[in-house]
Amino acid sequence: MHLILTGATGLVGSGCLHQMLTNEKVTKVSVLSRRPVPMAEGHPKVNIIIHNDFSQYPSETLEKIKGATGCVWALGVSTSDVSKEVYEEITMTYPVAAAKAFASMSDSFNFVYVSGEGATTTPGRFTPFFGVVKGRTEAALLKLSTEPEYLTLKPYSLRPAGVDPKLHEEIHTWIPKLKPASKAIIYPTILAVLRPTWPGMVSPTRDLARVLVELAMGDGKPLSGLGVSGQGRTISNVGMRKLAGI
Description:
By secondary structure, the chain is an alpha/beta fold. 37% of the residues lie in helices and 17% in strands.
């Protein structure tokens, strides 16, 4: 099975890349990245495609990823690192453009969007900016899949909470360092508190990545059960943990 991955040098993307590399059912991985991906360097089933504009997919790029049947879209950025305009472009414009470009690559193409807890398609006065934008992206992907030109698109949006790589030792060398230094102190402290007190708000990278990759490899049908909404295509962190069996 041939899958596409973006955001491979980030925290969630590193977990997904490790899962794809070690999953025997995944025979080829096309990584779209702006820069080299050291974790995948030299691996026989990985094709690193240096891609600078994630809003455009020229024919030569599509030819390189021909045959793919699913994608995990883990490309993302924090609202504190960029302007609102740039955040919207990365968080919404890029994945929607990719979904449009990839939909025709297969009779049923699974597009798995890494959203986040706090995202909502019905924002209120106090909804944080990231939640509004990610919710709009989730809605846009769902709407896109109903349009005649994109009926082959099978989108899922998964909303991780506190992404926790502690027990995923294989990716520790590759995951980005938290900046500024204050984040490097505060984030691990929050996770240390959440693990025993509120595990439903923790997303262990090993389990999160497995669920994301399995969705990309799956039959594309709507899900049901605890933590699933959005016509069976939006999975909360509680839903992710249930699918992972944790």
